[in-house]
Amino acid sequence: MPITTTPKIWMNGELVDWDKAQIHVLTHTLHYGTGVFEGIRAYETADGPAVFRLTDHMVRMHNSAKILGMEIPYSVEELVEATKETVRSTGLPSCYIRPIAYYGYGEMGLNTLPCRVDVAIACWPWGAYLGDDAVEKGVRMKISSWTRHDHNTMPPAAKTVGNYVNSSLAKVEALKAGYDEAIMLAPNGLVAECTGENIFVSRNGTIFTPPLAAGALEGITQASVSRIARDLGLDVQVGNIARSDLYIADEIFVCGTAAEVSSVNSVDDRSVPCPGPATRAIADIYAKAVRGQDARYADWCEHA
Ligand code: PPE
Questions:
Q1: Which structural domains are found in the chain, ordered by start?
Q2: Is the peptide bond before 99 cis (omega within 30 degrees of 0)?
């Protein structure tokens, strides 16, 4: 999706002009994928832009860095403030936010220990990720021929730059085959997640979503919609999902910061009832919660 520029990007403590936010071609992370990042959204609310669960995203970024063995030179609180400052500088009522911590210029080779860590935060307007009206129409899913990383290969719980080679391979394969998105299986064959979303599968009155141990990123939207679903009185369990559960599901939805809540209308050409009643109800409340329109979830909205 093409980027629309905004006035400033935060780099190592300063807001710099969008066009000047540049790095050297010998930046370590460009060569080795050794960075961590986040995807966050700010939504328009009655009280100005509110960043959805900003602190939780920055805690996860620190956790990703911890798994990688990287020391981010800014605290969670400093990253939260820097993000708010960047959002304000755009003047936008809503935007997508991309913080990244990466090993910078000055060292090459696989030893990251001497490398400096640089941090940047960019914002831009970003629309629907899995197509307009992804709740009502639903998305066509394909089980990827690519396997999600094993925990001892590339830790999938860390949102590292390099992990997304796996996601890109799966995404492009699915698109070229005429599908909208791919479902990734873990090396043990169980369902992990999608290329950029967590997955929920409803069968016989229970909604299951795979745990971190199954190779899923601990999604902040996943946690949010689980809470919303439970508040609706639905039975949500963190548990393993087999490929066959997908084919005979009563309802499937996927969720993520970019994708928000999207229905699934088929998996490998087996149709799935869409949109299911739980998906609709959850998507509706999620859309209000992120915009500060549901008092139960007001503390998720961190005003810029
Ligand atoms: N799994 C993966 C692999 C993933 O990339 C995301 C977010 C999620 C689950 C959902 O996590 P959360 O956003 O905390 O609910 N994917 C981000 C990147 C998308 C991109 O194309 O880049 C996102 O949604 O911002």
A1: 8-124 (3.30.470.10), 139-289 (3.20.10.10)
A2: no
Region for 274 from its dihedrals, namely left if φ exceeds 0, alpha if ψ lies in -120 to 50, beta otherwise: beta
Residue-wise pLDDT for 60-100, tens only, equals 999 999 999 999 999 999 999 999 999 999 999 999 999 99
197 lines ligand 1 (CB under 6 A): yes
CA dihedral 12, 13, 14, 18 (to 10 degrees): 50
**Which residue from 95, 200, 217 has its CB within 8 A of the most atoms of ligand 1, so it is best to mutate?**
217
Q: Alpha-carbon distance 181 to 142, whole Å?
A: 6
Determine if the pTM surpasses 0.90: yes
Quote the pLDDT of residue 131: 83
Q: Is 170 in the pocket of ligand 1 (CB under 6 A)?
A: no
pLDDT tens-digit series, residues 161-190 = 999 999 999 999 999 999 999 999 999 999
Atom of ligand 1 nearest to the CA of 198: 9
Question: Is 84 in the active site?
Answer: no
- Digit-coded pLDDT (tens) for 209-258: 999 999 999 999 999 999 999 999 999 999 999 999 999 999 999 999 99
* Centroid of ligand 1 to alpha carbon of 161 (angstroms): 12
- 258 pocket-lining for ligand 1 (C-beta < 6 Å): yes
